[in-house]
Amino acid sequence: MKIDSLELQRLAAAQPRLDMYTSIHKALRACMAETLVALGRADTADDAQTQSAAQRVTDLLGLCEAHLDKENKFVHAAMEARAPGSSDALAHEHVEHEAHIAQLREGAAALHDAPVSTRPLAAQRLYQALALFVADNFRHMHVEETAHNAVLWAHYSDAELAAIHDELVASIPPQELMAALRWMVPSFNAAERLGFLADVQAKAPAPAFDAILQVARAHLDDSDWHQLCTGLRLLAVPGLVQA
Ligand SMILES: [Fe+2]
Hints:
Elements: H1 5-14, H2 22-41, H3 47-82, H4 88-113, H5 119-155, H6 158-170, H7 174-187, H8 190-203, H9 206-219, H10 222-231
Helix pairs in contact: 2-3, 2-5, 2-7, 3-4, 3-5, 3-6, 4-5, 7-9, 8-10
The chain binds fe (ii) ion.
Residues 68, 71, 90, 94, 140, 144 line the site of fe (ii) ion (FE2).
């Protein structure tokens, strides 16, 4: 079948573009949802459960803060360079999110340190405030994935976006990167997970790849882990598949 040039243009336009947001936003959505549920379920009469729930909130806030900083420094900077003003609205929301993060951090510390008698109230207040933060972030991330991507795709080629993303990832300290991967790897669908880890396998030093595989093993069920190992042709490696 002959395809005319207009059809080729339409097909080219329909090709998926490089999306810097999808992977990390899947990780953030998963971490936000699971942390909120864990906080809501925590038995405040139990010291360990209470402190674990408070720590999980603190860890989530650290992830959010680091992510927001990278978006400001790399993504918004790129948008402003070629479309001045295009990141204004969400940059303002980032300022609001920083204030919310500070308040939630205080709430998590208050829950962590509260005597048993006041823990139920401290937990309930933190749970409600975190729920609103999560709701606002879900909406915020959707705007980034639609309106911000439209700006990026209109002004940058995929090669340019890949270079920006590489620079962003290279700026992340190893411990922070592993914290993000802990949520990212299990939140991917199978094809995304295999594509991501095959890329790491091809480009990263073996110790870094092994460290990420350990994170994957710890947070995937047996079925997903076997599927990943098969895709990466790792089934023959002794000890790697433990299911
Ligand atoms: Fe953002």
